[in-house]
Design a protein that fits this description.
The protein is an alpha+beta fold. The radius of gyration is 23 Å and the shape is elongated. It is built from three helices and five strands; from the N terminus they run αβααββββ. It has one domain. A hairpin with a 2-residue loop joins strand 4 and strand 5.
Length: 159
Amino acid sequence: MKRLLTAMTVAALAACSTTSPDVIQRGDAQRLSTVTDATVLSVRAVTVDGTQSGVGATAGGVVGGIAGASRGNSRESVALGVIGAVVGGVVGNAIERSTTREDALEILVQLKNGERRAIVQAKGDENLQSGDAVILVTTGGKVRVMKAPPVVQGQRPVS
């Protein structure tokens, strides 16, 4: 029984993904990204809701069904198996949703051309504040906001 609960937890956590600017997805490695300069207008804390992929509900249903079916005589075990599967599915879904929820930031920026953009990303190591110069790194349609590196005057690009 403990092994099944462990397997359910691992399956739910495997469905986790992050929007952290400090984590690069494997598919985004070695891809050319577009960099855009901007200025932070505001930053506010938000919560990114957890996923409900069905992995948690399925794993919970299996665990609950097996646990319920292993109790009582044959007639009781069928009923308990069904009840266990339903309860396990609900619990598994709740576990998946809560373990994939993450604290994030909604960052409102203004581009050099005056346009404004809002980006939601998980909290990273950098502390962004209004007025900060930032860069928007776009890779495969996903955008990360990072503090802009200092510009060195009079230095030519390496060719």
